[in-house]
Amino acid sequence: TQLQRELIANISHDLRTPLTLIKGYAETIRDLDGEDKARRDADLSIIVDEADRLSVLVNSVMELSKYSSGAARPTPSRFDLAELAADVLRRYADRAEKERFSLRQDGLAEAEVVADPVQIGRVLHNLVSNAIPHLPQGGCVTVRLTARAGAVRAEVADNGSGIEEKELPFIFDRYYRARSDAGKRGSGLGLSIVKNAVLFHKGDISAKNRKDGGLEFLFSLKKTLF
Q: Would strands 151-158 and 112-115 be described as parallel, antiparallel, or unpaired?
């Protein structure tokens, strides 16, 4: 299909760029004369960064292919979504301190749901990591949990600039990038993975611009077996 051809073309491009950089900097290190440790360390750091970038892309493609093929069946259990959200936010505490933004969780102190905690953990990680690059100086990412009839609604919001309204319907499409994301690093598959994971749990997910600025993702999970 056209979508598959575009996906393959985009992935091929994203694979080619880091592979070219890794090869180029490896050759530079091989050919360095003398003991230029500072230059060597700088080049090695680029190689490591590009290898990490490749790993993220490959893992994203593999994860998305599992959802597409139906192989990513959830393994549901009963757990506290509030506790999971707090654990996810803790993983970003060091980065928040270094980059001077804040993380906040409010709403339900306990939020029991029945879902696959590993898959939902990835959903929260993807949404939080997606929000961080769009934060203004001193910005904030907020995770808010509220009760719904037989379900828990999770909201992951930032106070950045949001996106154009006309781009909102496409935000979960594979490899779609809003204009504000053009040229930024990332696989372009994170939000598609998020949507597939939530839908596999028979939940719903949406995105909207906040009235006071920023973007807000909302998804729901059931309190009983789906």
A: unpaired
Strand pairing class (215-222; 205-209): antiparallel
Q: What is the pLDDT of residues 29-54, one digit of tens each?
A: 888 766 778 888 888 888 888 887 77
Residue 111 neighbours by CB distance under 10 Å: 22
Tell me the percentage of the chain whose pLDDT exceeds 90. 42
- Going by their DSSP bridges, the two strands 205-209 and 140-148 should be labelled as unpaired
Structure tokens at 4: 């598959």
For residue 188, is it left (φ>0), alpha (ψ between -120 and 50) or beta?
left
Nearest one of 110, 216, 212, 87 to 156, comparing CA atoms = 216
**CB crowding 20-49: b at 16 or more within 10 Å, else e:** ebbeebeeebeeeeeeeeeeeeebeebbee
203-213 per-position pLDDT tens digit: 999 999 998 88
Report d(CA 28, CA 39) in Å as an integer: 10
Residue tagged 């091989």 (tokens): 30
Print burial letters for 138-175: b (CB count within 10 Å at least 16), e (below 16): ebbbbbbbeeeeebbbbbbbbbbebbeeebbeebbebb
Place of tokens 């070219």: 20
Q: Answer yes or no: is pLDDT of 189 > 60.
A: yes
Q: How far apart are CA 39 and CA 152, in angstroms?
A: 52
Q: Give yes or no for a contact between 64 and 196, defined as CB atoms under 8 angstroms apart.
A: yes
What average pLDDT is seen over the chain?
Answer: 83
- What amino acid is encoded at 20 in this protein? T
CA dist 224 to 114, 134, 220, Å? 5, 35, 12
